[in-house]
Fold:
Amino acid sequence: MDIKKVKEELLNDMNDVKDLKELEELKIKYLSKKGLITELNQNIKNIENSEKKEYGMKVNELKNSFINFYDEKKKYFDELILNAKLKNEEVDISLPATKILTGAPNILEKIVEEIEELLISMGYDVVDGPEIEEDKFNFELLNIPKGHPARDAQDTFYIEGEDILLRSQTSPVQARVMLSNNGKNPIRMICPGKTYRRDDDDATHSHQFMQIEGLLVDKEVSLSDLKGTIDIIVKRLFGDKIQTRFRPSYYQFTEPSVEVDISCFNCDGAGCNICKHSGWITVAGAGIVHPNVLRDCGYDPNIWTGFAFGFGAERLAMLKYGIQDIRTFYMTDLREVKSFDREEI
Ligand SMILES: [Zn+2]
Structure:
């Protein structure tokens, strides 16, 4: 093949090249080891000596013109590809953003934290205890001996025999703290935590629920100290206008025992569905610690007195957030969980 023919073919090919792939194919066709221009170069040995110089120059010229063409075209195609890519990846900043869902505190935790924060500021300790408990701490030390009918009210999950159980209340933590103090030091503590009872599964009962119990042991503690403390807690949770009232009640580990009512935060006492038209809502049980409990837990009832109170965290949350079914706290339905978070968003 002579220079003229290769040149003609090259010019045609250069006119036809449409993309980077074709350009690279041309490079192979002309400049590779067996490429047409390479072959022309190798053919120089067959050229007459007198014509070698001119032949060499022409082949070089051809080669250079192709290399120039190749470089320019490659640059052009590369830019084309880059621009297409950029256009494809363009960010439209006017588009609405995807909403990022964030977690929010569980409202039971929020209630507990609110009470914890308040009581810590009043000098209380927050104490934890085992959920798998001994009968001794859950019942006996709390003035509920074996066979006592008061046990029936707390239908308990027993794990091993009659001695190991899932705690039916958080009061055993109080017994543990009193015993560990050897009857010497005053106590101010709360023990929020999960408790378990074989309660019927209905809208207001769950087999697992959360208590927030408090205990204060000191000298000359009176019912009015208890009332003042409860008053501060419910005002923090439901507002400054809330009134507190005590009604006589019965618990085995307190004497006297009271049920704590608050004036209805919804109707200010006028009567509505939440307070069942009574103007009052029961929120806690409380009382003065029974002398038997003090004595059994190592405190001399002639020297020490104390009060105890217990809130149900779910009940407080249901009231505060208008939730109808206690079981929704422990379900995994995200729609429910999100509805709880409405105050957060
Ligand atoms: Zn009401």
